[in-house]
Write a structure and sequence with these properties.
Strands 1-2-3-4 form a four-stranded mixed β-sheet, covered by helices on one side. Helix content is about 55%, strand content about 15%. It is of the alpha/beta class and about 375 residues long. It folds into two domains: about 250 residues, no CATH class; about 130 residues, CBS-domain. It contains 13 helices and nine strands. The relative contact order is 0.07.
Length: about 375
């Protein structure tokens, strides 16, 4: 998701990114305005994009600020035409297993409530400032009526996101309610099934509308939303299952126990020579029995090219985290993502007994999943 978006700035310390699907919104609005030969049509289309963009930003800020107030920092907001995604820093979340479902509902409904508040407030201001304005005149949302579009864009976003169609905000709130009785994977699966019903209905309604000339573009838009909802629900379900597996796997099951180490007194050329004879990309740096840093093969190469031969101590990263072998794979992932690390040393009674890297994590997870599948098939037979 981040690779298909571009950064545009920060608000309240939160990175704001625009997803490339906003280009589809721009093309759609431009096409609807192309029928008119007005010279200012292009500017009005850009104005309408700005209105929708601002509405989505405020929607996601509602999620992010409520999440921050609930003990979960927000790292980034990725903006989509139908809402957006707030990326929360789960690694630094304050644990609250008893009231977690209430917290999730507050975070989920915060965005739609912000949009509904803006819609109501802007409607009151427009009616007071322009008594002759008709807020229900057609078209409700169009580049030719930007002031009225502020009201309706926020109303649409608020009501649409309150639908119990996972992964929309209403669906997330519904999942939180389900999680009171069942685990998060089952709660997600129940919410996903309901979301699939809504997405299929949207696609079918979109096909019906697209068959009529006067509602063709509305049908196309509705089909696209239904498709994204269906695909998003599938990805969310897989993510929930993946997270549950991560919680059940211990690091001692997947850590590398046959690995190479470097000394801070090793020269970079010696370190590169050792790296040639191993598949490791990252190396623990050990002085005696103490681990003092980590260094990557890429960092060694870059230092050799830039400054020539030197010592590992000068280029190693002294900021690293360690994990116990009894910790879960989910814990390792959180530590890797929290500090943008590529390696986690695994210790037992303060002795280095293994390493976990992103490279071997993904390889081990696929093999572990296959072995568990084979065991289940053997038990069933």
């Amino acid at each position: 998701m981040r690779s298909w978006s571009i950064p545009v700035g920060r608000l309240f310390g939160i990175e704001i990114r625009i997803h490339l699907t906003f280009l589809f919104l721009l093309v759609f609005l431009w096409s609807t305005a192309a029928a008119t030969q007005d010279a200012t049509a292009a500017l009005r289309v850009l104005g309408l994009v700005g209105v929708i963009f601002g509405s989505v930003v405020l929607h996601e800020l509602g999620h992010a600020l409520v999440a921050r107030g609930s003990g979960i920092p927000a790292k980034a907001i990725i903006l989509l035409p139908i809402g957006g995604i707030t990326i929360l820093d789960e690694a630094h979340a304050i644990p609250d297993p008893i009231n977690a479902w209430k917290r999730d509902i507050r975070i989920a409904v915060a965005g739609p409530l912000v949009n509904l508040f803006i819609a109501g407030l802007s409607a009151l201001i427009l009616l007071a400032a322009m008594p002759g304005i008709s807020l229900t005149a057609r078209p409700l949302l169009h580049s030719s009526a930007l002031l009225r579009s502020i009201v309706w864009s926020n109303l649409y976003l608020g009501l649409f996101n309150l639908l119990p169609a996972y992964p929309m905000d209403g669906g997330r709130a519904l999942r939180a309610v389900f999680s009171r009785r069942v685990d998060m994977v089952r709660a997600t699966q129940r919410a996903v099934r309901i979301g699939h019903v809504f997405s299929i209905l949207m696609i079918m309604l979109g096909m019906l509308l697209s068959s009529r000339t006067e509602t063709r573009w509305d049908g196309y838009w509705l089909m696209m939303i239904g498709f994204f909802l269906f695909a998003g629900a599938q990805l969310e379900e897989r993510s929930a299952v993946f997270q549950s597996v991560l919680q059940s796997v211990r690091l001692e099951e997947v850590m590398l126990t046959d690995f190479a180490t470097l000394s801070p007194a090793d020269t970079l050329e010696d370190a590169l020579e050792k790296a040639v004879h191993t598949l490791q990309d990252d190396f623990p740096v050990v002085r005696g029995s103490d681990m003092v840093g980590v260094v990557s093969r890429q960092k060694i190469l870059e230092a050799l090219r830039a400054e020539g031969n030197g010592y590992v101590q000068a280029v190693m990263n002294r900021i690293f985290d360690v994990a116990a072998k009894q910790e879960s794979l989910a814990s390792a992932f959180r530590k890797l993502s929290a500090h943008n690390l590529s390696i986690i040393p695994v210790v037992d009674e303060q002795h280095l007994v293994g390493i976990v890297t992103l490279q071997n994590l993904m390889h081990s997870m696929s093999l572990l999943a296959e072995s568990r599948k084979l065991r289940r098939e053997a038990l069933d037979s």
